[in-house]
């Protein structure tokens, strides 16, 4: 603490830790009664609002921070939207490799959830699995938590934000690909200074997966959605297919880097190199006095490891 004010990185990571603790404790008392009253889809939406949006509201009531500045409610350009859609689609094979690696040490929870939603209307599926996470998760992760890392350079801030995003899912199967996506989301939000950029990519990424699974299930009448789609999962039958997908993933990473570079160059032309340098470098002097690897982050890592060990 400094001058009675909680430092940004400490505050952001503390908020992330609070979200996890709240989810672990309140889930024992709130979710079971809701599950008896409502269907799984409704409970999943309520879960996002209870464990993400409610703490978000409390956070702003308590801190009185500027809502627009913290959540980065700034515009994205039409030309950037197409690039963001491409990034979301290119992220599929990368996330797939991550999901495949995770399958060796953790059961895929997402496939089980999607299987439980088998048979619900398409737009309801998209609302539950794409729209709601794209709003709720981004407002907390790339809004409040990423804002806490504003003094740190873009690489460090994005990596830590990605790790927190991976851990906050509280599953082993989602850790790798959620971390990867979180890094991409955070990096682009820092460049564009707009939460809408990560919302778009998140929405398209999840929506594409759910759409492929849903319509594949319709074409193959006796197969459920879960057998067709996991949130970036792989159904492979040979090592050759994995190697091929790995090569595709490497190519996708390269193209994503080029696409992000194009967004950066456009923003430099429109907003100036000084503005972009500030977003990339942060404030090194302030960052030294406010480490991003701090006590809340360490506790969060340890708590995550304990949860994974117990599960």
UniProtKB/TrEMBL annotation:
<dbReference type="GO" id="GO:0080120">
    <property type="term" value="P:CAAX-box protein maturation"/>
</dbReference>
<keyword id="KW-0472">Membrane</keyword>
<feature type="transmembrane region" description="Helical">
    <location>
        <begin position="81"/>
        <end position="102"/>
    </location>
</feature>
<feature type="transmembrane region" description="Helical">
    <location>
        <begin position="12"/>
        <end position="31"/>
    </location>
</feature>
<feature type="transmembrane region" description="Helical">
    <location>
        <begin position="199"/>
        <end position="217"/>
    </location>
</feature>
<feature type="transmembrane region" description="Helical">
    <location>
        <begin position="37"/>
        <end position="61"/>
    </location>
</feature>
<protein>
    <recommendedName>
        <fullName>CAAX prenyl protease 2/Lysostaphin resistance protein A-like domain-containing protein</fullName>
    </recommendedName>
</protein>
<feature type="transmembrane region" description="Helical">
    <location>
        <begin position="237"/>
        <end position="260"/>
    </location>
</feature>
<keyword id="KW-1133">Transmembrane helix</keyword>
<feature type="domain" description="CAAX prenyl protease 2/Lysostaphin resistance protein A-like">
    <location>
        <begin position="125"/>
        <end position="207"/>
    </location>
</feature>
<feature type="transmembrane region" description="Helical">
    <location>
        <begin position="292"/>
        <end position="310"/>
    </location>
</feature>
<keyword id="KW-0812">Transmembrane</keyword>
<dbReference type="InterPro" id="IPR052710">
    <property type="entry name" value="CAAX_protease"/>
</dbReference>
<feature type="transmembrane region" description="Helical">
    <location>
        <begin position="175"/>
        <end position="192"/>
    </location>
</feature>
<dbReference type="Pfam" id="PF02517">
    <property type="entry name" value="Rce1-like"/>
</dbReference>
<dbReference type="InterPro" id="IPR003675">
    <property type="entry name" value="Rce1/LyrA-like_dom"/>
</dbReference>
<dbReference type="GO" id="GO:0004175">
    <property type="term" value="F:endopeptidase activity"/>
</dbReference>
């Amino acid at each position: 603490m400094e001058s009675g004010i909680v430092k940004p990185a400490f505050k952001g990571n503390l908020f992330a830790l609070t979200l996890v603790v709240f989810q672990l404790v309140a889930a024992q008392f709130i979710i079971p009664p809701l599950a008896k009253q409502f269907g799984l889809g409704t409970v999943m939406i309520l879960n996002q609002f209870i464990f993400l949006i409610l703490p978000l509201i409390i956070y702003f009531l308590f801190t009185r921070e500027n809502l627009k500045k913290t959540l980065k409610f700034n515009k994205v350009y039409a030309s950037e939207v197409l690039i963001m859609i491409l990034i979301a689609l290119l992220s599929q094979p990368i996330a797939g490799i991550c999901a495949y690696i995770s399958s060796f040490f953790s059961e895929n929870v997402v496939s089980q959830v999607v299987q439980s939603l088998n048979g619900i209307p398409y737009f309801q599926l998209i609302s539950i699995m794409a729209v709601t996470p794209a709003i709720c998760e981004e407002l907390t992760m790339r809004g409040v938590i990423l804002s806490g890392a504003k003094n740190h350079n873009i690489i460090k801030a994005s990596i830590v934000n990605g790790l927190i995003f991976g851990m906050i899912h509280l599953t082993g199967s989602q850790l790798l690909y959620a971390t990867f996506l979180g890094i991409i989301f955070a990096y682009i939000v820092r460049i564009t200074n707009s939460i809408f950029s990560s919302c778009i990519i998140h929405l398209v990424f999840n929506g594409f997966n759910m759409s492929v699974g849903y319509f594949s299930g319709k074409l193959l009448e006796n197969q459920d959605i879960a057998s067709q789609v996991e949130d970036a999962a792989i159904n492979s039958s040979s090592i050759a297919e994995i190697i091929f997908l790995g090569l595709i993933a490497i190519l996708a990473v390269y193209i994503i880097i080029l696409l992000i570079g194009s967004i950066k160059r456009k923003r430099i032309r429109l907003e100036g190199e000084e503005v972009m340098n500030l977003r990339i470098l942060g404030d090194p002097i302030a960052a030294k006095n406010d480490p991003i690897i701090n006590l809340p982050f360490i506790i969060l890592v340890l708590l995550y490891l304990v949860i994974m060990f117990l599960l």
